[in-house]
DNA sequence: TCAATTAGTCAGAAAAACATGACCACCTTA
DNA sequence: TAAGGTGGTCATGTTTTTCTGACTAATTGA
């Protein structure tokens, strides 16, 4: 009898990594909001009641590292930084809608 | 400016609950294995290296509570208990395959 | 010049998730 | 009758995640 998953970072279960990057207290909401409009840091901090800088900062970074969000700086004064969906991120939208459809 | 998510159990983001029930150290693997064959407790405990009774028990319960797995007792001696995908659980399989496709 | 905005980082505390070992009941085989 | 399998629960401890408050730096408006 073979044992699965010698370690829990195993990618024999390919959806697991994606599920991990999307899970957490704020990431689903950040992803969802990003499908509507680009995200801005202090704006999110005000909108997401109960959130905090540290967690939002980490969540945005993880979503960006996963290739779902891209970060770009607008040359305004003061500088504004926007996080918006990448191509990969956009590809996920209809799949999420299907998931929501069967809840 | 309206604030979103007065509490973090909010269902204004419907995928969030589902994402939550599928996230965690063992649940993705349990779901995946359940797409192949019904799950049995001690069998999982042996197969999933590094797992433990407490966590598997909790994970199976959460997946069952979410309506993705159903629990039934086989009248064998000794009794065997099987967890298998519900209709809802089966509906999620192709959606997960799409997600995996774009990783 | 002082307060407030922009977007964060850092250290430490609190909360949540996960693991460990003891224990339970039932049944079977030796 | 003792050991080992079935499928768990419970209390406790460890590890990971999340939150809090202090701090940074540049820019704007009063």
Written account of the structure:
2 copies of one chain form a homodimer. Chain A is mainly alpha-helical. Chain A has one domain: Arc Repressor Mutant, subunit A, CATH 1.10.10.10. Helix content of chain A is 50%, strand content 12%. Chain A contains 5 helices and 2 strands. In chain A, β1 and β2 form a beta hairpin. The longest helix of chain A has 15 residues. The radius of gyration of chain A is 16 Å and the shape is globular. Chains A and B meet through α1, α2 and α5 of A and α1, α2 and α5 of B. The structure holds a DNA duplex (30 and 30 nucleotides). Chains A, B: It comes from Mucilaginibacter aquatilis. Chains A, B: This is Transcriptional regulator. Chains A, B: Pfam families: HxlR (PF01638). Chains A, B: Keywords: DNA-binding, Transcription, Transcription regulation.
Q: Which outline of chain A best applies?
A: globular
Q: Provide the residue-averaged pLDDT of chain A.
A: 88
Weakly predicted, low-confidence segments of chain A: 1-9
Count of discrete domains of chain A? 1
Order of helices and strands of chain A: HHHHEEH
Helical amount among residues of chain A, as a percent range?
A: 40-55%
Number of helices of chain A: 5
CATH topology of chain A: Arc Repressor Mutant, subunit A
CATH architecture of chain A: Orthogonal Bundle
Please provide the count of β strands of chain A: 2
Question: What's the level 1 CATH class of chain A?
Answer: Mainly Alpha
InterPro entries (chains A, B): HTH_HxlR, WH-like_DNA-bd_sf, WH_DNA-bd_sf
Domain HTH hxlR-type (chains A, B): 13-103
Pfam families (chains A, B): HxlR
Keywords (chains A, B): DNA-binding, Transcription, Transcription regulation
